[in-house]
Amino acid sequence: MTGTHVVAVCGSLREQSYTRVALLHALGGADTAGATTELLDLRELTIPPLDPDRERQRDASVLKQQLRDADAILLGSPMYHGSYSGVLKNALDHCGFDEFEGKTVGLLAVSGGSFPLPTLEHLRSICRAFNAWVLPHQAAVPRAHAAITDGEFVDNSTADRVALLGQRAVEYAHIEPDPITFESEQNVGATK
């Protein structure tokens, strides 16, 4: 779809991050579908822990503006202790309805072991609280060390599923938003 811009947020700080590899692959799927793409690597931004009593830092403002400018957003995280990464949580804490409401969001999770379902569920809940439209298709990369070697997918079925996430983000980027969710009505923090 021409004119669609997809932004992916990498919730991993590792130098050799499987999450980053997977998000870049998903962005390749979005590019193939005709979108412009951008990776927001949280390693390159200095976003302090959210303190609502202090003025927002410049890098948090950069993050928020890039998300506002996106037509669709991909959120990617490694599974840490049955959830998503703290660095992604902090970045999302700096955001609100202005960045996510009515936007299409695709979810990707990576784990060293079993299927990272809790990570995907927790991210889905966050996006519902922002009143985003979360793609039904989500991508997981379990046993990432076996699926990715030297920065490339070696598991074709996982690679196809991840690329499809990017394609679906483009396909549904301009879907008519659903009515607001109960979760978003209760999310007072997202409006401040």
TrEMBL record:
A Pfam short name: FMN_red
- Gene3D superfamilies according to UniProt: 3.40.50.360
NADPH-dependent FMN reductase-like domain segment(s): 5-145
Family membership? Belongs to the SsuE family. Isf subfamily.
- Could you name the domain of life of the organism this protein comes from? Archaea
Any one cellular component term from GO for this entry? cytosol
Q: Which cofactor does it need?
A: [4Fe-4S] cluster
The identity of this protein, by name, is NAD(P)H-dependent oxidoreductase
Extract the GO molecular function terms from the UniProt entry.
FMN binding; oxidoreductase activity
Species of origin reads Natronocalculus amylovorans
Q: Which SUPFAM superfamilies match?
A: Flavoproteins
